[in-house]
Known about the structure:
This protein is an alpha+beta fold. 43% of the residues lie in helices and 25% in strands. It is globular and about 40 Å long.
Amino acid sequence: MSPEAFEQIAAFGKQLSQSKELSEMLIAIANEAKMLLRAERCSIYIIDEPNGMLWTRVSNGVGRIAISLGSGIAGLTYRSAQAQLVNDPYQHPDFLAAIDQQSGFETKNLITMPIFGSDRSVIGVMQLLNKRGEGGFTQQDKQLLTFLANYVSGMLELALKLD
């Protein structure tokens, strides 16, 4: 990962610390993730363990998405507590093609990243869709997204508790 990427994320962290509301913070995180990874869309799912659901608080281009903790690639990310890099989603057994069908969007590739709380439990999942340009998401993208998720996790955890 380039030193410029570290500097950009550090500068973003300073900006993010000025956010007062959870929705404002989530939009800023999604926009930063899209810019860093050159993705078309970013959704941020919040974990709702009591109801067994993942809910998007930010989902570019579509309304709120709600899926069970046991479904979808975001659900797999939650259950495994590991990032997923999927460059052929329609061939992946956990891909929820019905969401694309309902929204009219075509997912060409995606990457997901768990967001951990201070107790190392998964409190959220970032999902980025359709890397711009040639090819799909890479291991370098995964490293960059891991760094971003770790960088914002504390602020996001606090905002979720205050929300």
